[in-house]
Design a protein that fits this description.
The chain has 442 residues and is of the alpha/beta class. The protein contains 13 helices and 19 strands. The chain has a five-stranded parallel sheet, sandwiched between helices. It has a five-stranded parallel sheet with strand order 6-13-7-8-9. A three-stranded antiparallel sheet has the order 10-11-12, with no helix packed on it. Helix 6 packs across helix 7.
Length: 442
Amino acid sequence: MGNLERVVGDYGIEQGFPLSKTESGTQPDRIAVIGAGPAGLTCAYQLARLGYTVRVFEASPKPGGLLRYGIPRFRLPEHVLDAEIARIEALGVSIECNKPVETGIAWDEWTHDYDAVFVAIGAGKSKLLGIPGEEYENVWAATEFLHAMTDRSRVDIGQNAVVIGGGNAAMDAARVCRRAGAEATLVYHRTAREMPAMEAEVQRAREEGVQFQYLMKPVGIAREEGQTVVKCQQTRVGELDASGRGSPVPVDGEVLLLDASIVVLAVGQKPDTAGLCRCLWTDERSANDAQGRTSVAGVYAGGDVLGAASVANAIAQGNRGARAIHRDLRGISEPVGETGSRGAQRVSKERMNRGWFPWKSRKADALLMDVGGSGWDGVQGEAQRCMSCGVCFDCGHCWSLCGEGAIVRSLIQGQPCTFKAAVCQGCGKCSEQCPCGGIEME
């Protein structure tokens, strides 16, 4: 999962490829970004490409946010993160660390000094279960635990780790414990099908020896004869709740006791908005429109502070915020409907004509990562499996089927075909036979 992107990214770092700007000139506006996590860095990167002067303020000693302090090193090596951030700084982005947001911040001061502000403070505060025993010193919130482990702090994991939760952070915490030599048991109060973690992450945790206890809800953490014990109540799946999943209902009389040298609570995070003006927030989520604009003019938000839920979503919100800032500062009207980088609308597999494509099996992860040997053949072969969903790749099928000459092929290889609407008879053959579903009749 993501290995093609990783290979290309690693190759770009190894070869020293610089990031490029999309605009040749510079913009007169100054932008402040609060938070150097995935959303903040992405927003800064995209604005710098457009020629803006961007200054990023980060509370931690180093930039990266969740990427540095919440993702284990075996998933994201620190030297890769440092190299990618250095490429962003090379575009002219200024990153100032150890700069936390002041309590009671006045947004009029920020918007006086900067033409726009993008808030990407993340969700650094861990949620608790509200059960007895959470105050014990060997009970950790997942964010603090992963931070301590990635920051090379000494954490006494011991021999029996119990991780409570079912998301990607829970999988990371359990795998970190296993790699430290402990037995790891993950407790989740719903079924395996309802776990929010990505299936690939769950599978990797299983492969590394993590044990799973489903339909078990922790109700207390106690000390018995010097040993920490997690008391769990068995549950069953009830009616659907607000999350769209079955609500866990306790089963009377069914209790599980788990010995634990360390307990990690991976039950979610929330933003720390203590230093931010309350007019920006509603129920711990920013009051914003679809493009990241907040209720304060000139202030935008994105990332986990809006409940991004994943690094990919945070990056998408950073991109979205940069586009909104650029449009507002340059007076560009909002486009009707968001499209991909080449103007492609999202298409379903039903619109694809997969009969045009020869079957090619997926390459094993190990082959893709072996780029020093024969791996490049695997990388190229895997890339060729792409069916260019919704985007014309100049296959020429529509052109050969059109008897009216309504379709014009470009003389430049790889450029999409164009259409002569006045000549088209509306037979629909091109739309029906387009391999990638890139032609839609109107």
